[in-house]
Design goal:
Elements lengths: L1 E7 L15 H4 L3 H7 L3 E5 L10 H8 L4 H4 L4 H7 L9 E10 L10 E3 L7 H15 L4 E7 L2 E6 L30 H16 L2 H8 L7 E8 L7 H5 L3 E4 L3 H9 L3 E3 L12 H13 L4 E6 L1 H8 L2 H21 L7 E6 L16 E7 L13 H4 L4 E2 L3 H9 L1
Parallel strand pairs: 1-10, 1-11, 2-13, 8-9, 8-10
Antiparallel strand pairs: 2-12, 3-4, 3-6, 3-7, 5-6, 11-12
Helix pairs in contact: 5-10, 6-7, 11-13, 12-13
Amino acid sequence: MKYLLILADGMADYLIPELGNKTPLQVANTPNMDKLAKSALIGTVKTIPEGYPPGSDVANLSVMGYDPRTYYTGRSPLEAVSMGVALGDNDLALRCNLVTLSDEKNYQDKTMLDYSSGEISSDESGQLMAAINQELGNNELKFYAGVSYRHLLVWQNGSNRSFTLTPPHDISDRKVTDYLPAGKDGKVLLDLMVKSESILKNHPVNQARIKKGLRPATSIWFWGEGRKPSLNSFPAKYGLKGSVVAAVDLVKGLGICAGLKSVTVEGATGGIVTNFAGKARAALDELKAGQDFVYMHIESPDESGHQGELKTKIWSIEQVDKEVVGLVLSEMDEFEELRIMLLPDHPTPLSVRTHTSDPVPYLIYDKNHPVSSSTGKYDEQSALNGQAFGSGYELMDYFIRS
């Protein structure tokens, strides 16, 4: 049996009045998902345990079959693994976004205009992070460039540091006043954020972006702290050789920690516009080359939700259907046995522009065992009539072993 998991990050949403009280998934043109839905098991799964933040780290850990209550140690350490950054047992890793803040004189009076600095390119952000590390890095603190706006700070022997941090995508268009680093060691991080402004302000990369009408990266922003992770092997747990196809370091790192092969796809950005078909091609090629399981992650719907762009989110869902699910369906006959699972990790509703803990719809299709009693439609509302999983990590067991 071959297993393909297609995770459309943040695809689930709430009912939207201007869509006639439907969700983007309901109104999007998804003929390929609909084709699978006619013979698939459809239901809901709660990927975020009670008391845990509804982040992609917790959610993807859950979807991959690991109980966050046992294995969760924070987001950034997983990204560090993907980036090849070695962490000591007492080191602390923190996500370091490049963000665009408004231009008030006092830092605390600024507004979070863009958590992604206009989806800045990796080449541009790499130059900016090199400047940040040169000016602010030292033997204790070291900055590493990642993908687009997503970067890393490693605080050597900092695992006992204490602070309260807020993800920048949770405060879009809000004043940062109440969301600045707080707690015993929060001032150290806040000072770094304030100092980063003067480093970034006149950097040639930002000056060039302004001339092009693009948003500059005006500050760094810390969140997602955590310690070195330790996961049980996915191949040992399920007896399957597997790969992870993803552009974002979080999911790549999670896969590597779980013992999966990480596959990089040219043109896969981790943003709204990405190489959808290239990811599907890579996933199918991995299965054909001998892998038993592939975890394919697509970030686009989530980014659209954070940006609050309705048309873009519908577009991204339609691209997943056409370029990903469509390609898989076109090559279905090349596999003697194939089981597919499609789901988001969490909702990213347009109305709140951040993640929520609501259950998400899943679809499980088995080529050789069609479900005659299927609801026939894959969306948030139809899924309410199907089987519900109250603990997200149980769904992977069901997918593989049922």
